[in-house]
Amino acid sequence: MPQLRWLGHAATELDLSGKKIIIDPFIKENPMCPIKLSYFNDFDLIIVTHDHYDHLGDTVEIMTMNKNIMLYATYDLEVYLNKEFKIPMERMIPANIGGSVDFNGIKLALTQAIHSSEHSDPTGTVVSADNVTIYHAGDTGLFEGMKLIGEVFQPDYALLPIGGRFTMDPKQASFAVDMIKPKKGVIPIHYNTWDLIKVDPNEFSRLVSSKGYKPIVLQPGESIEL
User: Which domains does the chain have, with CATH numbers?
Assistant: First the structure.
């Protein structure tokens, strides 16, 4: 059964088609994360939405520890990791915002995100397998292109940042839900890690429910079957 597990902040674990995926592996310095890096010894794929330290996180250390894991990110970010940390390009899936690529039967895509990033454009990501599609928005503000993301990918689940200040706040994220129209549920992320992004997820739940969508508020380490 496909599963999703939230590890605090934006870090999200997916188990799809027998493959283990970690999105934005901010682990060691993440005060919300309940696991250690050794947990990723047998993972198959890392997806990084952008290079801020709380999203690129422990990617380099995980790839050094786990010699089989691959990386999916924008090509410019991959080139930076190759030059700066000697991560072989052969262990990276070259991509940019655009069409989907296949990873062992799992369909991957990068999407626009409205944010900042030093070595490449910020992105969201869409992951599809086992008849389920998950949209992880990364760090982003509200933008009209979310409607197109919803129409093109038709996600079953959406993970949206709600912490405000650096990303959408609960009210703005509820407008994003209206544009994306996730069929089975929406999960708030990127909030309450620090005081600067402290919000009440119940406000998000109330707003989302009032629009007819299903909010799924997870505790760090909690998982759901997809």
Answer: 3-217 (3.60.15.10)
Task: Report pLDDT digits (tens) over 109-130.
Answer: 999 999 999 999 999 999 999 9
Q: Please check whether residue 10 is in contact with residue 77, taking contact to mean a CB–CB distance below 8 angstroms.
A: no
State the CB neighbour count (10 A cutoff) for residue 80.
18
Distance, in Å, from the CA atom of 208 to the CA atom of 177, rounded to the nearest integer, reads: 7
Helix axes 170-180, 145-153, angle to 10 degrees: 40
The residue among 62, 224, 57 whose CA lies nearest residue 157 is 224
What pTM does this model have? 0.98
Residues contacting 31, CB < 8 A, separation 6+: 8, 193, 194
Please give the structure tokens belonging to residue 181: 């129209």
Is residue 221 within 8 Å of 36, Cβ to Cβ?
no
- Residue 152 sits at φ, ψ, to 5 deg, of -75, -45
Q: Using an 8 Å Cβ cutoff, are 189 and 161 in contact?
A: yes
Comparing CA positions, the residue from 28, 14, 6, 222 lying closest to residue 128 is 14
Q: What is the pLDDT of residues 174-213, one digit of tens each?
A: 999 999 999 999 999 999 999 999 999 999 999 999 999 9
Q: What is the dihedral of CA 197, 34, 129, 51, to 10 degrees?
A: 50
